[in-house]
């Protein structure tokens, strides 16, 4: 990655991935746990309202999945721009 345009493309890809992950994080943490709780509580998982489940457990599962997704996609971006570590 020697040209400035490649560096700009790498930065743009990295920020795009970060924006996607943060949007999902926001929707799950703030949206499912606070904003949309009334609509989600119409459904249940294991006898608990879905809004409560997301606020207590579901968001943790989504956050862990986001960590793995981010790591995989960031490795793909690094390989695409030949800045990977291995």
UniProtKB/TrEMBL annotation:
Entry keywords, A to Z: Membrane, Transmembrane, Transmembrane helix
Domain Sodium symporter small subunit: 8-84
Keyword Disulfide bond attributed: no
Membrane-crossing residue ranges in chain numbering: 9-30, 50-71
Keyword Zinc-finger applies: no
Pfam families named in the record: DUF4212
NCBIfam families associated with the record: Na_symport_sm
Protein name: Membrane protein
Native organism: Limnobacter litoralis
């Amino acid at each position: 990655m020697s040209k400035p345009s490649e560096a700009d493309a790498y930065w743009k890809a990295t920020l795009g991935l970060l924006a996607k992950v943060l949007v999902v994080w926001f929707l799950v943490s703030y949206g499912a746990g606070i904003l949309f709780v009334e609509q989600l509580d119409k459904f249940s998982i294991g006898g608990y309202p879905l809004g409560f489940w997301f606020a207590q457990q579901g968001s943790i599962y989504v956050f862990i999945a986001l960590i793995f997704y981010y790591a995989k996609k960031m490795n793909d971006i690094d390989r695409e721009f030949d800045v990977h570590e291995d």
